[in-house]
Amino acid sequence: MHIWILKIILLIASSLRLIEMYDNYGEICRNLCTCEEKEAILTVSCENRGIVRLTEISPVQFSMYHLLLTGNLLKKLSLNDFINYTGVTILHLGNNDISEVESGAFNGLQGLKRLHLNNNKIESLREDTLAGLESLEYLQIDYNYITNIDTHALSKLHQLTVMILNDNMLSTLPSNIFRNVPLTHLDLRGNRLKMFPYIGLLEHMDKVVELQLEENPWNCSCELIALKAWLESIAYTALVGEVVCETPFRLHGRDLDEVSKQELCPRRPSRRLCQACTS
Ligand SMILES: *[C@@H]1O[C@H](CO)[C@@H](O)[C@H](O)[C@H]1NC(C)=O
Ligand SMILES: *[C@@H]1O[C@H](CO)[C@@H](O)[C@H](O)[C@H]1NC(C)=O
Q1: In the structure, which protein residues have their CB atom closer than 6 angstroms to any atom of ligand 1?
Q2: 256 alpha carbon to ligand 2 midpoint, in Å?
Q3: For residue 92, which of 68, 102, 127, 233 is within the disulfide window of CB 3.0 to 4.6 Å?
Q4: Terminal-to-terminal C-alpha distance of the chain
């Protein structure tokens, strides 16, 4: 008799706890966003809700979750905007209007593995822009206006393997940007790159298995010999996009892998030799 009562009480208590748990994801799951739990991960979908500021939403009570904020009207990410979002492992911020990312904006996201910032208006990656994202493995930041990346912008991202940077306005990458970054995939299509040195760049890319370099105005000069040699050395195992020469005019439209070293870097007779010939 007593055992029965106890069992019933336990049953009621546990089902109440279950109800409470579902209700306790957080306030945003009851109103603004839709939340779905699957295999111990909660997906919080707040896409296209007209959200202008992050103060309009609030964190959920869950140990691991994905936060989808794609297609809103965010303009600025401010200091500590995500400080109470420690459970987020995937954060989608694509298709907003973000032009400003304050230092410390990503504080609290030390467990974040994937960050999507595509289709925004970000102009630079400063030393502190990505500060605190020490678990980040995947960064998507294509279709922005990035012209400038600080040498130290990635230096604390020791887990970063994928970086999607296509369709920005990069004319150069800083020296040592990928030192201690275990990149395997890098997409640089549609930028303004003319050259790609070995020292300070290719030398740190030994783990790369996919590199996309199309649609850049490559200057096929002596300085591109290192890239040509590097592409040849990895071409059998890696997926590599075409590198087409923009300049000089005589090589315009040619594919780097079909241009000989001699064409890239014609040896001119030195002046002294010429003087010797004519005298
Ligand atoms: C984060 O949570 C703490 C403790 O609940 C609270 O005092 C603080 O205002 C929150 N910060 C933000 C930015 O929401
Ligand atoms: C291409 O590189 C050569 C050799 O470094 C340089 O003289 C030339 O100005 C460069 N052209 C462009 C368009 O950058």
Answers
A1: 80, 83-84
A2: 16
A3: 68
A4: 121
Q: How far apart are CA 236 and CA 206, in angstroms?
A: 14
Amino acid at 274: C
**pLDDT tier at 175, thresholds 50, 70, 90:** very high
Instruction: Count helices and strands (H / E) in the chain.
Output: 5, 16
> pLDDT tens-digit profile of 32-90?
999 999 999 999 999 999 999 999 999 998 999 999 999 999 999 999 999 999 999 99
Residue 72 contacts residue 48 (beta carbons within 8 Å): yes
Distance CA(84)–CA(107), nearest Å, equals: 9
Closest of 186, 91, 178 to residue 133, by C-alpha: 91
Tokens of 71: 């297609």
Domains and CATH numbers, the chain: 35-278 (3.80.10.10)
* Chain centroid offset of residue 191 CA: 15
Q: Is 218 exposed, middle or buried (0-12, 13-18, 19+ CB in 10 A)?
A: buried
Distance between CA 269 and CA 279 in Å, rounded? Answer: 15
For residue 219, give both structure tokens: 């200057």
Pocket of ligand 2 (CB under 6 A): 194, 219, 221, 223, 247
Nearest ligand, CA 107: 1
Ligand 1, closest atom to CA 81?
A: 13
